[in-house]
Amino acid sequence: MTWSDWKWQLQNRITQLADLETKITLTTEERDSFAKAYDQFQFAVTPYYLGRIDNKDPHCPIRKQILPRAGELVRKQNETDDPLAEEIHMPVKGVTHRYPDRAIWYISHVCAVYCRFCTRKRKVSTPEETPNRSEWEKALDYFRGETKLKEVILSGGDPLTLSDSSLDYLLGELKKIPHLNQIRIHTRHPVTMPMRLTESLNSVFSKYFPLYMVTHFNHPNEISDETKFYVMRMIKEGHVSIFNQSVLLSGINDDANILSDLNYKLISIGIKPYYLHQCDEVFGSSDFVVPLEKGIEIYRKLRGFHSGITIPSYVKDLTGGGGKVLLSPDYLQKKTDKGYLFQNYLGDEYEVGH
User: Fold this and answer.
1) Which residue among 28, 174, 235, 247 is least packed, with the fewest CB closer than 10 Å?
2) Known binding-site positions for [4Fe-4S] cluster
3) According to the UniProt entry, which residues carry N6-(pyridoxal phosphate)lysine (predicted)?
């Protein structure tokens, strides 16, 4: 196996401090935080994605997404382990069914890279959280019986850590359910391990048109020549429609010029910017949170000044499972002492903190 083999990339992920220090020079804070943070959330990065880091820049936007920092060990009052209340809407293991027409199916606990701002830090990298084969069947039976469902979203972890044959089976079974209108796959592999988008995987995906994929680029530096090659080949051969959701992250992409560059580059390789998320209030995320006032101002600089197809929707997933609210200035109701009032998709008002 070689560098361009995705299984080699997974098998050779850097997971330990000693191995990491042979690859890059760590700051004192990064070194001191590593062991303490590891107790809360494991560390892993593919050789490919680690190679995208600028070793000379301690503020490198890729570096800051993957290396533990002291702020990750601080729990703010508003932070929780399960900010989107996914666990309380879980009728069968691995399935969150909160909205009437769609459900999320967690079919893997493994990611190529463990992002430090991950919403699912409570369960990602934990093997017992992965549904087994018999639990797959229970989930499929649940989907068959829920006739109001229009969409199933394969998520994790990263669903593309499964084998091609497993994905072929799951997609085939889902496509047989007559009331399902579409299937979506959420994956960060195009960012962290683009060589996973193999010709054999494209052959599987091409059998299940239309198929929708949502990936997760946060910075233009994440788009490499390999990204362009594998993504564009998948779109052409796998007949997959690809969308991107970014998270607005302090010191990483909280700049209108950076986001504009990212979104134009995504469009140029066939990926549609879909969501720009306000960072979820998950334990240890406070260093990444961009103040809402700044986020609104950044979004204001994008809308109306750049091509419409490059503009994602700026949203906040409400803590506690209330769903998404649009953070566009158009949906701003008023400012309060604690934050801002926005309308959600039903027209209900929710207060979002600063």
Assistant:
1) 28
2) 111, 115, 118
3) 324
